[in-house]
Amino acid sequence: MGGIIENALYSVATPIGNLDDISKRAVEILSNVDVIACEDTRNSSVLMEKYGIKTRLISYHKYSENSRCELFLNYLKEGKSIALITDAGTPLISDPGEILVEEVLKNGFKVIPVVGASAPIALLSAIPRTDEDFKFIGFLPKNKNQIIEIVSKNKFENLIFYESPNRIIETLETIKNEFSNKKIALGRELTKKFEEIKIGEISEIIDYFKSNILKGEIVAMLYKDIKTDDIDFDEKIKKLKNLNYKDKEIATILSELYDSNKNAIYKKCLEI
Questions:
Q1: DSSP 8-state class, residue 133
Q2: Among residues 181, 4, 214, which one has the least CA distance to residue 172?
Q3: What helix, strand, coil percent values describe the chain, rounded to 5?
Q4: Where exactly are the structural domains of the chain?
Q5: Class of the 120-222 domain?
Q6: How many Å apart are CA 83 and CA 269, to the nearest integer?
Q7: Which of 33, 112, 150, 254: CA 20 to 30 A from 41?
């Protein structure tokens, strides 16, 4: 069976838009497992048809996770192999699969990852960052207070999230009203014909998409705030003084750049 391991569940990443973004290994596995557990058989059949994959599709979504587990476990106990896929991207990354994977492992069977497309990684590979750390939280809640709480709690993280096109403007307005103009990177329709990635202050992104058609899947990253404790203000003040800036000008510049107390910086300027 093409090197397929029996009694195993393969967690297979599928394209997030461009159907050419699938690995040769993924096609071979999907072609040779006994069944494929998928979110929506109609969506997955498009991919299967493109690559001539004839394997039986069985629906497995968030509303059927519990009821389908026993069926798939019985397949494994019979020595059969299963592939788990989602409509787009990597299983368990804001997509169904957690319950099945947990039960498969609990029953002593293997779960084998088959890597591929993932919207958060796609966005990260196309935007500048000063460091490598980030936090992915999936979809933001609809409640404004919960959104504010999450952003506040993670303000020192590069925070990646999903959002729907019909809610993104409202979500960005909520964040802007509470946290002023945080920097954000927003990607939509990644890997597709109308792919678009915009980077800027939230107000700029809001203005842009208010006057442009906003459709398709959206993934965004709020850039983290800089911790003022990590900033060497003394060194920065000295450099600006050498450029003949006055103390009040320096205090204004640094307080704006680093969202810091203007009076405290001015006091430092007088001491240097």
A1: -
A2: 181
A3: 40, 20, 40
A4: 8-117, 120-222, 228-271
A5: alpha beta
A6: 63
A7: 112
Q: Which of 11-20, 100-109, 192-201, 262-271 has the lowest mean pLDDT?
A: 262-271
Residues 6+ apart with CB under 8 A from 14: 22, 26, 44, 47, 85, 86, 87, 88, 89, 116, 117
Amino acid identity, residue 138?
Answer: G
Q: Is 80 exposed, middle or buried (0-12, 13-18, 19+ CB in 10 A)?
A: middle
pLDDT digits (tens, 9 = 90+) for 160-218: 999 999 999 999 999 999 987 789 999 999 999 999 999 999 999 999 998 877 788 89
Instruction: Report which of 10, 35, 34 is spatially closest to residue 23, judged by C-alpha positions.
Output: 10
In the block, residue with structure tokens 């999907």? 30
- Token pair 């409202």: residue: 170
| pTM, full prediction | 0.79
